[in-house]
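Need fresh eyes. Consider my entry:
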Amino acid sequence: MRAVNVEGKDAALTERDFLFGDDRPFKQCHASTLVGLDDGNFLVAWFGGDKESADNVAIWLSKGKPGDWSEPRRVAKIRNDAHWNPVLFRDGKGKIYLFFKVGKKITEWETWWTTSSDDGTTWSKPVELVKGDRGGRGPVRNKPIVLSNGVWLAGASFESETGDKHWDVFVDRSSNNGRTWKATPFLELDRSNFRGHGVIQPTLWESEPGIVHMLVRSSNARIYRSDSKDYGKSWCPLYPTDMPNNNSGIDLIKLPDGALVLAYNPVGGDAGSRSLLNLAVSFDNGKTWPKTIALENDNPPAEYSYPAIIAHGDRVAVTYTWNRQRIVFWEFANDALEAR
């Protein structure tokens, strides 16, 4: 844990910490997610096991704050198949949801969920989100958002492993607090000059009532974007932004003043290096990103990837994978991200 200097401005409330050290009950870990609690603590979840896709991979959880994290505990293991991509989400009424995928292959993913009403101390028996679905419904990696009309919106995607191996994104919508979900069609993507498999793992925000946007991971060297004018029911064709993407996960949060904070690897190219990790801040709804903060700046084969970001009171909190061995936690005061 340390105080840092952000672009010459003293951010005295900025803290960095590891959730655990080398003495851990799994060889590798990845794909963290987090929520803030009313008492100032956080819940952080990730998947861990021998390696990604191994049968012993389960969902793990830690609770605390910088300098005081609980020992990792296993909170979900449905059967002896790999577990993937946990997503934590608070519904605003005291209940916390944990979504996760189960399956030997991505095309066989089932989405399961469990809930906690006591800040993660106990969890309900996991159930399938959409019984019988294969390929993954609900949030694929990033947190859902609650729209101004109360609808839950989750960024989803499907990764085909047959034929030309298309990757496609869609949105899952729930009008009854997650009990049932309705998926949109795959979003339109012009593949005529597109390299690689496609797009996956949307991160979402609502700029004004009914006006919703997404940024997505792509294999075409750039973050792609789409916009909706009807609460996420329909979307314009995906289009490239100026922001680089190395075909690795991204995440975004909208602050109370409307600023957007994006966590991403500032590298282009399909399977580009994950050894750099930045925050970028936009003050014009994602048109430009004039402010950046370097979280990691290393050389390959270092890996800092799959960031998750939330706003919590007057703070922004970020977690991400550190060399597949640990999970890093950062916390910033919002004023460290303001325009100057």
Remarks:
- Confidence is low (pLDDT under 50) at residues 1-13.
- The chain is about 0% helix and 50% strand.
- Residues 228 and 235 are 5 Å apart (CA to CA).
